[in-house]
Amino acid sequence: MYKKNSSGWVKHVDFIILDLVCIQLAFYLSYVFRQGDWNPYVVPLYRNMAIFIVLADLIIIFIFEIYKSVLRRGYYKEFAVSIKQAIMLLLISSLYLITVQDGNSYSRVVLFSMVIVYGGITYSTRLLWKMVLKYRMKNNEDSSLVIITSSQIMEQVVCNIKEKNYNMYKISGVIVIDQDMCGTSIEGIPVLANADNAAEYLLQNWVDEVFINVDESALYPKELIERCSEMGLTVHLNLAKVSDSALGKQSIGKVGSYTVLTTSINVMTMRQAFIKRSIDILAGIVGCILTGIILVFIAPLIYISSPGPIFFSQERVGKNGKLFKMYKFRSMYMDAEERKAELMKENKMSNNLMFKMDFDPRIIGNKILPDGTKKTGIGQFIRSTSLDEFPQFLNVLAGQMSLVGFRPALKSEYEEYDYHHRARIAMKPGITGMWQVSGRSDITDFEEVVRLDTEYIRNWSIGLDFRILLKTVKTVLHRDGSM
Predict the structure, then answer these.
(1) pTM of the entire structure?
(2) First CA to last CA across the chain, in angstroms?
C-alpha cells in the first residue's frame, strides 16, 4: 500500500520522525547550555521557535526531498546533505526572527549552536538508523520481497537485486517459472516454488512485494500477475516486460538497477505515510499510559475471577502475512482456546474464517443459569467497553499495528483464505476498522468483512481514518450505554 516504493516510504517516515526528534533535542540542549534554564517551553519566544523549527524542518524535507535515495547515500554524501539541511534551517529561522516583533531578544548563541548541534546529531542518527535497518533486514524483520524469474536470467537478476538492494528488502526467495527448482538455491537465496504452486506459496506466506523479470524465451506469467493483484500484493514489473495484465494503481520506481512499473492496491504518499505513522506513535504513547492506569483497576478483578495472567498474547497474521504477537487484557478463562473447537457449531459467521458467537461461555463470568438467564461478569464488561483492546497500543507503538486497519486473523483462519481474501491484509492490522463500525454485531458473512476491508484499503485517506475513529468512539459509547 505504501508507495514510492512501498517499503521505501515507510523507512523515510521513520527518518523524518527521528529528524524532528533531533531538531527538538538540539534546540533544548542549546537553550540549556546558553541560558542555564531547564525549560525553554515556558518562555513564549522560545516556545514559538520550538514549534516553528519543526514546521520549517518539514518544509525543507519535503520541498528539497532530503530523504530521496537516503539508503543509497554514503558517509560523505550523507554528511553533505545534513550540513545543507542545517544551513537551510538556519536561514529560515533567521528570517523568522527578523519578522517577529521580539526577534531581537532571541539569543544568537542559542540559534547558531542549535544548528551546529542539529547537524551533528541528525547525521549520526541517520547513520545509526541505517545500521538498524540493515540489522533488521538480516534478521528477517524488514519488507519481504520474492523474485519471480526464469532459469536463463535467474542468477543475473538475483545478483543485481542483492548488490543494489540498499537495505530496502529482505529477499525471501525466488520463484522460477520455467523449471522445477524447488529445494535449490541461487546465490544463497532459496527457490521457493515453481509455476504450478507459486500462487499458493504467495498466499500462505509472509510476502510484501514481488519483482517479476523473465527472459524472452519464457512465457509471460500473466495469470500469476493477476493472482498477485487479486491478493493485494505489490507487484514490480520490469518495464521491458510490461503487459496490460497489471491491476491497481501504478507508479514508476526502482528495484535494484531495474526500472519497474509498480502496481499496488493503493498508493500512499510519503506525506500521508508520515501523518499516519505520527498519529499512530502519538496515540500509541497515550494509549500505553492509559493501559497502565486501566491495569491498576482491572488486574485484581481479572485475577480474582479467573486466576492466571492478566495479559493475553496470541500469534496473529499482520501485514502481508507477517506474524506478530498481539496483546490484550485477558477476558476469557485459561482454557478458552481448548474449548473453541466444541463451540464452532455455534459460530455466527458463514464459514470458519472468523469466529463470533452471541454469548460466549469462555468469557470470564459468563454463565447460563438453570432458569436460562444469562449472567455476565468482568470479562464481558471489559470486552463490551473495549478495555481489553488497550494493550494493543503496544503493538501500535511498535509499528506492528495501526489505529485503523483490518482485524488481525488467527493463523489457523488465515490458512483457509482464498486468493481474494488476502487483499484485506495488504496493510497493517488495526485496533479498529471499516467493518467494525459498519455494524460488527450484524455482519455474519466473511465475504462482507473482506469487501469492507478491501474497500477501506482502495479508498484510504487520512480523512477516512478519522471518520472511522469517530464512528468507533460512538459505537463503543453506544454499546457501553446499552449495557
Answers:
(1) 0.74
(2) 39
